[in-house]
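Protocol step 4 of 5: obtain the predicted structure for the target chain.
Materials: sequence only (see below). No template structures provided, no constraints applied. The aim of this step is simply to have a reference model before the mutagenesis design in step 5. Sequence pasted as it appears in the construct record:
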Amino acid sequence: MSSAHTADDLHRIDLNLLVALDALARERNVTKAAERAGVSQSAMSHTLRRLRELFDDPLLVRGRGGMVLTPRAEALAVPLRSGLVSLARTLAEPPAFEPEQASRTFRIVSPDLFDALVLPTLLRRLGQEAPLVDLAVVPMPKRLSDSLETGDVDLAIYPVLLDPHPFDLGTQVDGELQSRTLFRDSFRCFVRNDHPALAGRRKLTLNAYTRLNHVLVSPGGKGPGVVDRVLDSRGVQRRIALRVPHFATALEVIAQSDLVLTAPSSLSSCSTASTLASRPAPLDIPEHAITMIWHPRFTEDPAHRWLRDLMIDVTTEVPSLPSKRSRQA
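Step 4 output (structure tokens):
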């Protein structure tokens, strides 16, 4: 396949081949790609042979853990997916977005604490304003920027430290992405009400804090948390006795153990936290912002703009959030 092409050259290419290539790049398995495309495995195998001839590249080869993409296929995957999503939206969606009549699903990536605090109000508003619009909260993809660019994810809700610091919250945001702060939050320590460390104390000292066993909410299951990095900057350490991926799990654990959880202050609004005690963290942890992130491709898209405006409105309606001010990040 020639290295230089224009839109006028596309008549020479069977565009169904590109749809098949997208399925192969996403599934990295001929059988699963055939299922996604709604064709037989033999038909997909034949299509893969045609694609290899078209690009003069094997595209999909066997590796240690299964089929892997060649560098050429890797380079094609994201722009191809982005182009197909744009084409599908151009053909399927009307130019104007009318929420009361619209029927579609928005996909967002968000922390479980945000879900617990905001989703009930968001769903109520959707029911009132857009009864046929559905919402899917999806897992964090390996490459968030790519998923936002292709439209596989519409919005990501992301924690970002506000104070300049040599570390962040373990998240990296592509500089090309657009963002808006929904609210700000600080950190508190949560323990069960009759925890022995609180006996006769209104505050936790740093010495008492570091002697306790801790639970860390870590979706990836590894790496230090922001608290550990602050402690390390002061030459102090704590013991992480348990790592869990979700705040809901952490709340259940600390309610029935002597572990302590250092978490966003807004956690106190969760129903499970009503039986817990909380104290200010005995160290200066940078405040963080819960930030809405999207790809600039969709900034002017009417449906996407409506969703972002709704998210901003909803976070101002939730009374338990620590700060209702929203600003451009």
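Step 4 remarks: Residues 121 and 317 are 8 Å apart (CA to CA). The chain has three domains: 7-92, 104-184+288-328, 187-280.
Proceed to step 5.
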